[in-house]
Design a protein that fits this description.
- It is a peripheral membrane protein.
- Its EC number is 3.1.2.2.
- It catalyses: octanoyl-CoA + H2O = octanoate + CoA + H(+); hexadecanoyl-CoA + H2O = hexadecanoate + CoA + H(+); decanoyl-CoA + H2O = decanoate + CoA + H(+); tetradecanoyl-CoA + H2O = tetradecanoate + CoA + H(+).
- GO terms for molecular function: hydrolase activity.
- There is one protein chain.
- This protein is mainly β.
- It has a domain at about 50-160: Thiol Ester Dehydrase, Chain A, CATH 3.10.129.
- Helices cover about 10% and strands about 30% of the residues.
- The chain has a six-stranded antiparallel sheet with strand order 1-2-4-5-6-3, covered by helices on one side.
- Strand 1 and strand 2 (about 55-60) form a beta hairpin.
- Bound molecules: octanoyl-coenzyme A (CO8).
- Octanoyl-coenzyme A binds near residues 102, 129 and 156.
- The site of octanoyl-coenzyme A has 17 residues, from helix 1, strand 3 and strand 6.
Length: about 170
C-alpha cells in the first residue's frame, strides 16, 4: 500500500516483556469507559486487542451504521481512532504505557458498513521514548489492504501524565 512515512533506519529493536499477554490472549489493561476499548460506553469501538506472536497484535471491528461517514461507508475519523487504539495497545507487549504523538493513516478503499475490519499491528522499534508502530487493515483478503497506519507513540509515566485530568468519578 502507498504511504509516505519513513521510520528511522536506526530503531532500537525491542523484546517482548516476560509478563506480556500470551499469543491469542486479550490485552486488557485499559479502563471500561475508554472510547476505543471500554465495555461501559454505549457508543464506543469496543475493540478487543489480541496479542500475537513477537511484537504483533490484532483486532476485529464490525463496521456499524453509527460509524458512517460518506453514505454507506466508514467515517475516516472512526477508522483513525480504531488504528490509534490497536496500535496504542501494542506497547503493553513490551511493558510500556504510551500516548499517541503522531498518527498517519492511508485510506486505500472505501470500507462498507456491515463489513468487519481486521487490524494487524507491529511494533517496529524504539528511539529513546518514541515507539514506532505500523498497522494494516483488511476486510477479508489479507492480500488486499483497505487502509494502513504509521505512528509514533511516546512512553509515559501514567500517574504523572494523567494526574491533572484524571476523572476519579468515572475511573476508579
Ligand atoms: C492501553 C492504551 C491504549 C491507548 C490507545 C489510545 C492512545 C491515545 O489516543 S492517547 C491520547 C492522544 N494523545 C495525547 O493526548 C498525547 C498528547 N501529547 C503529549 O502529552 C506530549 O506531547 C507527549 C507525551 C506525546 C510528548 O511530550 P513530552 O513527554 O514532553 O516529551 P517530548 O520530549 O516532547 O517528546 C518525546 C519525544 O517524542 C517526539 N515527539 C513528540 N511529539 C511528536 C510528534 N507529534 N511527532 C513526532 N515526534 C514527536 C519528540 O521529538 C521527542 O523525541 P526525541 O527523543 O527524538 O527528542
Amino acid at each position: 500500500m502507498k504511504h509516505a512515512f519513513v521510520p528511522p533506519a536506526d530503531l532500537e529493536p525491542l523484546q517482548r516483556h516476560p509478563k506480556a499477554a500470551a499469543p491469542g490472549h486479550h490485552i486488557d489493561l485499559h479502563h471500561s469507559t475508554c472510547f476505543g476499548c471500554g465495555d461501559d460506553v454505549p457508543l464506543g469501538l469496543h475493540l478487543k486487542v489480541i496479542a500475537g506472536d513477537g511484537l504483533t497484535v490484532s483486532a476485529d471491528m464490525p463496521v456499524a451504521s453509527w460509524m458512517q461517514g460518506g453514505p454507506g461507508v466508514i467515517h475516516g475519523g472512526v477508522l483513525s481512532a480504531a488504528f490509534d487504539e490497536v496500535m496504542g495497545t501494542s506497547p503493553l507487549l513490551i511493558g510500556s504505557a504510551v500516548v499517541t504523538a503522531h498518527l498517519e493513516i492511508d485510506f486505500a478503499e472505501p470500507i462498507p458498513l456491515g463489513s468487519t475490519l481486521h487490524f494487524d499491528a507491529r511494533i517496529l522499534g524504539r528511539q529513546r521514548r518514541k515507539v514506532y508502530i505500523a498497522s494494516v487493515a483488511h476486510i477479508g483478503d489479507p492480500e488486499r489492504p483497505v487502509a494502513s497506519a504509521h505512528s509514533i507513540f511516546v512512553t509515559i509515566d501514567v500517574k504523572e501524565h494523567f494526574a491533572e485530568h484524571y476523572d476519579k468519578r468515572v475511573i476508579l
